[in-house]
């Protein structure tokens, strides 16, 4: 039977098992919306209030489920509004398919109403993109889009659909399988390299595992935990890798990098073997690359060959999917008679315990003083038993969330690491809550960030998303202010938020519950009260210490071991 | 170091701009670039000349391979290879003496005069880069009106080859 492009579009989504999409209508996508209307029982469409929100929500959905998130926006401004979210997904390797409407084919290139070359605009920030030029290609293109987005190193794929394609007709056939001669990610690690890696692990005196977002994306937290326990090595996670290994485990030495722990950064600096798994040696992690891991041999497992030896030359590269490679490592390790040097490990752990004594995340919460953001996060962790999905915006609060919420499971920590997009938190939380309606979803945010996608409070009301917003309100663009305090002699240029709205009233105006918390003694009670309101969004505005700083900190240009502690 | 990189890619709209965009976005330089479909019309063959350290070129090759439209990449610097470039030069030959001299130079360089007018000769010349440079140099005493160079094409010698 012949179907219209719009019908084909919806059929394809169903074939891909898409249950939820986030979007915003407009002229170029009216036929698509008409079809979604007719089939609303098949696919749940969430109407956001700004296209940036749609894309971040799709990211949140994807990060929590490891399934591709889907967004649909109109041509022109709809498409350009989506760009920030697309770039965000690209940086954090989030599987996502974004559909944009386009002007009818005969108008393309004419500066037509609401025309932009979105394929051109997004080319540097997508894994791939397509302009559909024939309705006969629509189904295959969508199949390819999902395939590319979710395999190999995941990433966003954009499909631009001209309006006249949505009314054109053709036979519908959805390919079950797709092969592309130009795209064949390597998922199995080279066995010889795995053997070499195990050789190095058996020789190492001061080994450390450095693992990242790739572990979470690969769904390999369980395998990683097994490997780490069998090896007995210390393990550190990147910001994106948190939850890939249980944070409360004694082998966990915290996050590394610019705001990583003293023990993690020192372990990296002094290590003689670094085992990097699904982590990409980002500059926030390495600090000054000249001073990075001066004594270590490096093993690097990554599905993207371009990640390997990009910033740091490695000794044993292993291209493959984390899960497969760890399984092979475990098998190889178990087949050996030797075991890691126990004596050396005891000495290494003794050294690490010395570093741990610095107690670098210690803070003092005086009950009568202003609330510390760290305290709020720690209490939130306690009252949610460390089980909540925690979304975050970007700034100091993000770092405190990462440091003080001890994640014990993967896919629960959802934040914008690579692009660092303020405004990410609330819409991402919507995506997570859509995926897991029964779970506790928190959004840890700042007074600056929350205002970048505040309009989504309306979406939360419409779809009954009972997100718990923890605004760590310091009246500053705190992360900027911290840099200005340290490196610009306290010249606080534009980092001060004058004219903050009354967030309680704002939340109420949007139909939600608002709370302002000003006293230390009220923090825990407020959190419990908010969590008890299972079916309401609660906006908790915590008035926190204004000039609080994130520590430890590796200043720009410094080596990993050159941290400012307080 | 100078590297000649051969790329086989899907002959699709936008593929070329992905390659070119990659170079500008990542700050790699393109010395020359030439592209056309192959015997298989679904594939284009692109030869790109760039400069960079071994690390940079290694990263360039990886990034190229990562582009979905790119089917295969070969860094010809790793192989014994041939390199040729084609050039048209239009020279002013108002004086009779110039006619003779230009014709002689063209013969020495094994060029062909492919167009003649009262005032101009247009010469076609193929060779490696240094030969073309030398020819342009040799013509310096005359009035060079235009130089059109195709950019290098490369191919590996012997058994080594780039094909699907
Ligand atoms: C304000 C701010 C401060 C920050 N401070 C820090 C900090 O102190 N410490 C820190 O760590 N980060 C920090 N970041 C985040 C930082 O910018 C990077 O986003 C982060 O370090 C990258 O994490 P990652 O190395 O785990 O890589 P990701 O971006 O998570 O990339 C994943 C890697 O794994 C690979 N991969 C993906 N899937 C698979 C698979 N299935 N199998 C194998 N490999 C796979 C990918 O190819 C990629 O190389 C900060 C960000 C902000 C905004
Ligand atoms: C869209 C965007 N614009 C600017 C920045 C730069 N930036 C990083 S953190 C930050 C301040 C964030 O302030 P707030 O949300 O109040 O968080 P705080 O640091 O105070 O916890 C700014 C402006 C950014 N990351 N994203
Ligand atoms: Mg703030």
From TrEMBL, chain A:
Q: Name one Pfam family in it.
A: TPP_enzyme_C
The EC designation for this entry is 2.2.1.6
- The chain positions of domain Thiamine pyrophosphate enzyme TPP-binding read 393-541
Query: Which positions fall inside the Thiamine pyrophosphate enzyme N-terminal TPP-binding domain?
Result: 4-120
Among InterPro entries, the record links this protein to:
Acetolactate_synth_lsu (IPR012846), AHAS_TPP (IPR039368), DHS-like_NAD/FAD-binding_dom (IPR029035), THDP-binding (IPR029061), Thiamin_PyroP_enz_cen_dom (IPR012000), Thiamin_PyroP_enz_TPP-bd_dom (IPR012001), TPP_enz (IPR045229), TPP_enzyme_TPP-bd (IPR011766)
What does this protein's record comment on cofactor binding? Binds 1 thiamine pyrophosphate per subunit.
> What does the record give as cofactor?
thiamine diphosphate; Mg(2+)
Q: GO cellular-component terms in the record?
A: acetolactate synthase complex
- Is Transport set as a keyword in this record? no
Listed GO MF terms: acetolactate synthase activity; flavin adenine dinucleotide binding; magnesium ion binding; thiamine pyrophosphate binding
Q: Which UniProt keywords apply?
A: Amino-acid biosynthesis, Branched-chain amino acid biosynthesis, FAD, Flavoprotein, Magnesium, Metal-binding, Thiamine pyrophosphate, Transferase
Q: Which GO terms describe its biological process?
A: isoleucine biosynthetic process; L-valine biosynthetic process
Note whether Amino-acid biosynthesis occurs among the keywords: yes
Q: Which reaction does it catalyse?
A: 2 pyruvate + H(+) = (2S)-2-acetolactate + CO2
The Thiamine pyrophosphate enzyme central domain extends over 194-326
Q: What class of enzyme is it?
A: transferase
The pathway to which it is assigned is: Amino-acid biosynthesis; L-valine biosynthesis; L-valine from pyruvate: step 1/4; Amino-acid biosynthesis; L-isoleucine biosynthesis; L-isoleucine from 2-oxobutanoate: step 1/4
Record's NCBIfam families?
Answer: acolac_lg
The UniProt entry's sequence similarity note says:
Belongs to the TPP enzyme family.
What's the protein name?
Acetolactate synthase
Source organism (scientific name): Thiothrix caldifontis
- What lineage does the source organism belong to? Bacteria, Pseudomonadati, Pseudomonadota, Gammaproteobacteria, Thiotrichales
UniProtKB/TrEMBL annotation, chain B:
What's a BP term from Gene Ontology annotated to this protein? isoleucine biosynthetic process
GO terms assigned for molecular function: acetolactate synthase activity; acetolactate synthase regulator activity
Q: Does the keyword DNA-binding apply?
A: no
Pathway(s) per entry: Amino-acid biosynthesis; L-valine biosynthesis; L-valine from pyruvate: step 1/4; Amino-acid biosynthesis; L-isoleucine biosynthesis; L-isoleucine from 2-oxobutanoate: step 1/4
EC number assigned by the record: 2.2.1.6
Q: Which UniProt keywords apply?
A: Amino-acid biosynthesis, Branched-chain amino acid biosynthesis, Transferase
Q: Which top-level group of life is the source organism from? A: Bacteria
Q: Which reaction does it catalyse?
A: 2 pyruvate + H(+) = (2S)-2-acetolactate + CO2
Task: Tell me the CDD domains matching this sequence.
Answer: ACT_AHAS (cd04878)
Q: Does the keyword Transmembrane helix apply?
A: no
Question: What Gene Ontology terms describe where this protein resides (cellular component)?
Answer: cytosol
Output the Pfam families linked to this UniProt entry.
ACT_AHAS_ss, ALS_ss_C
Query: Which residues belong to any copy of the ACT domain?
Result: 4-78
What is known about what this protein does?
Catalyzes the conversion of 2 pyruvate molecules into acetolactate in the first common step of the biosynthetic pathway of the branched-amino acids such as leucine, isoleucine, and valine.
Q: What is the annotated quaternary arrangement, including any partners?
A: Dimer of large and small chains.
Name the family.
Belongs to the acetolactate synthase small subunit family.
What name is this protein filed under?
A: Acetolactate synthase small subunit
Lineage, uppermost ranks? Bacteria, Pseudomonadati, Pseudomonadota, Gammaproteobacteria, Thiotrichales
């Amino acid at each position: 039977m012949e179907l219209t492009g719009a019908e084909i579009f919806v059929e394809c989504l169903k074939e891909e098992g898409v249950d939820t999409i986030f979007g915003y209508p407009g002229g170029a996508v009216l036929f698509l919306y008409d079809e979604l209307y007719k089939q609303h029982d098949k696919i749940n469409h969430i109407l956001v209030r700004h296209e940036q929100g749609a894309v971040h929500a799709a990211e949140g959905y994807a990060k929590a489920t490891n399934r591709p998130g889907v967004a649909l926006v109109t041509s022109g401004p709809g498409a350009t509004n989506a760009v920030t979210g697309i770039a965000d997904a690209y940086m954090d390797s989030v599987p996502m398919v974004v559909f944009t409407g386009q002007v009818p084919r005969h108008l393309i290139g004419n500066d037509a109403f609401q025309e932009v070359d979105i394929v051109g605009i997004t080319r540097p920030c997508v894994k791939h993109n397509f302009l559909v030029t024939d309705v006969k290609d629509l189904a295959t293109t969508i199949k390819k889009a999902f395939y590319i987005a979710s395999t190999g190193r995941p990433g966003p794929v954009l499909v631009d659909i001209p309006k006249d394609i949505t009314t054109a007709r053709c036979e519908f056939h959805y390919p079950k399988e797709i092969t592309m001669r130009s795209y064949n990610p390597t998922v199995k690690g080279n066995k010889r390299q795995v053997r070499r890696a195990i050789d190095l692990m058996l020789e190492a005196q001061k080994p450390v595992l450095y693992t990242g977002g790739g572990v979470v994306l690969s769904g390999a937290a369980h395998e990683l935990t097994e490997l780490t326990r069998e090896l007995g090595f210390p393990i550190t996670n990147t910001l994106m890798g948190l939850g890939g290994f249980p944070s409360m485990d004694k082998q966990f030495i915290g996050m590394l990098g610019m705001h990583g722990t003293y023990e993690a950064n020192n372990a990296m600096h002094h290590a003689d073997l670094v085992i990097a798994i699904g982590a990409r040696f980002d500059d926030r992690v390495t600090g000054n690359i000249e001073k990075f891991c001066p004594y270590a041999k490096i093993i690097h497992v990554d599905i993207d060959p371009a990640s390997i030896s990009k910033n740091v030359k490695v000794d044993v590269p292993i291209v493959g999917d984390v899960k497969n490679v760890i399984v092979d490592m475990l098998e190889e390790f178990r087949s050996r008679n030797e075991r890691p040097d126990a004596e050396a490990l005891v000495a290494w752990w003794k050294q690490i315990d010395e570093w741990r004594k610095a107690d670098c995340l210690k803070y003092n919460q005086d009950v009568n003083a202003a609330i510390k953001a760290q305290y709020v996060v720690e209490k939130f962790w306690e009252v949610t038993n460390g089980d909540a999905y925690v979304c975050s915006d970007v700034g100091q609060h993000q770092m405190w969330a990462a440091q003080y919420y001890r994640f014990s499971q993967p896919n629960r920590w959802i934040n914008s690491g690579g692009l660092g997009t303020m405004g990410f938190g609330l819409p991402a939380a919507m995506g997570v809550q859509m995926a897991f309606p029964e779970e506790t979803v928190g959004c840890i945010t700042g007074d600056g960030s929350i205002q970048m996608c505040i309009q989504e409070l309306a979406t939360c009301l419409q779809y009954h998303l009972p997100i718990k917003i923890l605004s760590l309100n310091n009246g500053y663009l705190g992360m900027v202010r911290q840099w200005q305090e340290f490196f610009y002699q306290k010249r606080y240029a534009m980092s001060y938020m004058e004219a903050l709205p009354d967030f309680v009233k704002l939340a109420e105006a949007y139909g939600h519950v608002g709370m302002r918390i000003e006293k230390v003694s009220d923090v825990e009670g407020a959190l419990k009260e908010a969590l008890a309101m299972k079916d309401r969004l609660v906006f908790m505005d915590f008035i926190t210490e204004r000039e609080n700083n994130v520590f430890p900190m590796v200043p720009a240009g410094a080596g990993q071991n050159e941290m400012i502690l307080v | 170091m100078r590297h000649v990189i051969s790329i086989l890619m899907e002959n699709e709209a936008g593929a070329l701009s992905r390659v070119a965009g990659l170079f500008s976005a990542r700050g790699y330089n393109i010395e020359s670039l030439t592209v056309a479909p192959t015997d298989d019309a679904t594939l284009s063959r692109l030869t790109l000349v760039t400069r960079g350290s071994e690390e940079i070129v290694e990263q360039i090759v990886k990034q190229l391979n990562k582009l979905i439209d790119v089917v295969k990449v070969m860094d010809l610097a790793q192989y014994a290879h041939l390199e040729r470039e084609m050039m048209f030069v239009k020279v002013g030959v108002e004086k009779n003496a110039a006619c003779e001299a230009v014709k002689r130079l063209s013969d020495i360089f094994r060029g062909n005069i492919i167009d003649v007018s009262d005032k101009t000769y247009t010469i076609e010349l193929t060779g490696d880069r240094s030969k073309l440079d030398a020819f342009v140099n040799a013509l310096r005493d005359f009035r060079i009106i235009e130089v059109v160079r195709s950019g290098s094409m490369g191919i590996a010698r012997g058994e080594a080859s780039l094909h699907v």
